[in-house]
Structures are given as structure tokens and as C-alpha cells.
Amino acid sequence: MHGTEGMLILTPHQSVEVFGAVVLAEPRVDHEISVELGPSEQRILNEMPWPHRRREWLSGRHVAKTLLSNVLELPMSRIQVLPAESGAPLVFVDEARISDWVVNLSHTTQWVAAAVSRRAVGIDVCDVVDGQRIDRIASRVFSPGEVEACGGLPTFEEKAAVWAMKEAGLKLRIGGVFQPGARSIRVLSVNPPVVADQSMQMSVMRLPDAMVALAVENVELI
Predict the structure, then answer these.
(1) What pLDDT sits at residue 1?
(2) In 3D, which of 199, 202, 204 has the Cα closest to residue 219?
């Protein structure tokens, strides 16, 4: 099957469970939102002078803490999402690290998305309008024959889906677009979403004007 029709639709502000992970997406706004922060989170925000970065950071914390508050059944005031040395988000409750829950975040100019899971997880959201950019950097993104295997990717939606799949897979493996690089995640199919690395399960969801990819550690291979 080609195209993006029939894919799961992710409704803004409504969480959905996929492969045991809980996913939530919210539209970005052009002002700072109010988020109930813990002391360490507040210190990070206080040291952040750039308005754009503050808005993005607060949006991400709101979505992540909303999910965590629901799954942990705790008030947001007791939960903190703090960066590891690598920059990856970690979960804290009452200033203590909670290692049995994993959270991951993604932002665009239009959306913020988060995923919470008991297994390793990566999430990425890509605005459909940005799908066209993939053609300009195709040699850094695709392996030989990959585009053909995906059905040629004739639409911006499919291009955005592939980019999100690659980013989600890299984030699951705590990698990046430069190291080990987008080509290390080989997409075999967009619909259904399948990658060559069988150690991860992949899902692609549709938002208004955006595509969201979720990569979760494959429990069947643990």
C-alpha cells in the first residue's frame, strides 16, 4: 500500500496508545504558556533568555508532563522532565530519577509531540510543508534503492512521513541526523510503516498538516 490514507489519525489534545507507548500532540502557540514546573525545571527556564526557545521548551514540558501525570497518576507539580548530559529528556518524581519510564519529545514550528513508554521510545513530528526539503538532501538521507522500495514518495506527506520515521528511529537509538546519520535507518515501506531494523516497531500517524512517527523497542526481540 502506498500513500498515507488509512494511517492512524492523531487528534490534537487527545492521547493514544501505540505499541504500549502513550502519544500526545498539541499545536504550538505564539506565546509562553503556563506550566506547573518543579524547582530544577524552573531554574532551567530562568537561565533561558531567548523567547522562541522558552516557548518551545514550555510547550514540550506541558505535553510531556501531561502524559506523565496521567500514566503515573501524580500531580504535575511532583513530576519533572530534565535533560541528561546527551540532552535526552529524563523523568523525575520528587527530584528522584524514575528510570522505568521513558519520555521523548519533538517540535516543529506548528506542533509539539511527546511519547511516554516503559521501553525505549523515539518520536518525531514533521510538518508536511517540510517534506519537500527531503529532495534537496536525498543523498544524505536515503540509501541506494530506498526511495524505490518506498514507492517513489510522490507526495509531501509521504516524504514527511519518511523523514519522521528516520528521526524517530535515530532518537530511539539515541543517535542523530549527523551521527550515525539518517541513512542508518532504512525505510522499507511508508504504509504500512516498516524499517529494516527489526529491533524497533514503527508507527506513523497523521496530524493536520503534519506526520508523526513513533519508534518503540520491539518487545518480541527482548
Answers:
(1) 45
(2) 199
